[in-house]
Amino acid sequence: MGGSDDGATDRTVTDRVLTVPNAISAARIALVPVFAVLLAQGHDALALAVLAVSGVSDWLDGVLARRLNQVSRLGALLDPIADRLFIIVTIVALAWREVLPWWLVAALLARDVALGLVQLTLARAGWAPLPVHLAGKAGTLMLLVAFPALLLAHLTTGGLASVLTAAGWAAALWGVGLYWVSGALYLGQARRVLAGGP
């Protein structure tokens, strides 16, 4: 995903708050309640448009962070927060409308709750959040592709609906799998850090 932490290995990571990428990430977070209201009220076309804008902005903030040399610690936090909020709102809304099964909601939320507890444990021990794994970014990307496809399939009929359903479920299952793989990697890394390893 586009996050402001990309490229941090070869660029200076700053404590700046007022940067262009951070403003984009903050705007993306502000779109979450708009997206939720649109979904709840059945304005699916507008909700999909908001989701598309969010996806473009997710890519854009990472590109600008690297090109403008504005990689920041705040950006590294805002970007995954926006991703998680969009995913949580989307899965709950789609499950409520019977587009997604509740077991998929439980599988995704359980992973996020588990990693949230790990992050709290790291913070209490004086550690900053650990870097996001590539598997986690790939899983998030798959989910952000899957849910619009499944929602669009729910709004269409015929062959297009079948194609969108198949593609959406393939992306969703890969996304859930990668989500949990990244969670396992994160838990292993956290365990080594808390044990005093590198």
Tell me what portion of residues adopts beta-strand conformation: under 5%
Order of helices and strands: HHHHHH
* Net shape: globular
Biggest sheet layout:
none
> What's the rounded overall pLDDT mean?
84
Instruction: State the separation between the terminal residues, measured CA to CA.
Output: 26 Å
Task: Explain what this protein looks like in three dimensions.
By secondary structure, this protein is mainly alpha-helical. Helices cover 76% and strands 0% of the residues. The radius of gyration is 17 Å and the shape is globular.
Offer a concise description of the structure.
The chain has six helices and no strands. The chain is mainly alpha-helical and about 200 residues long.
Give the tags:
mainly alpha; 76% helix
What is the topological layout?
Layout: H1 20-40, H2 44-67, H3 73-96, H4 102-124, H5 134-155, H6 158-194
Helix pairs in contact: 1-2, 1-3, 2-5, 3-4, 3-5, 4-6, 5-6
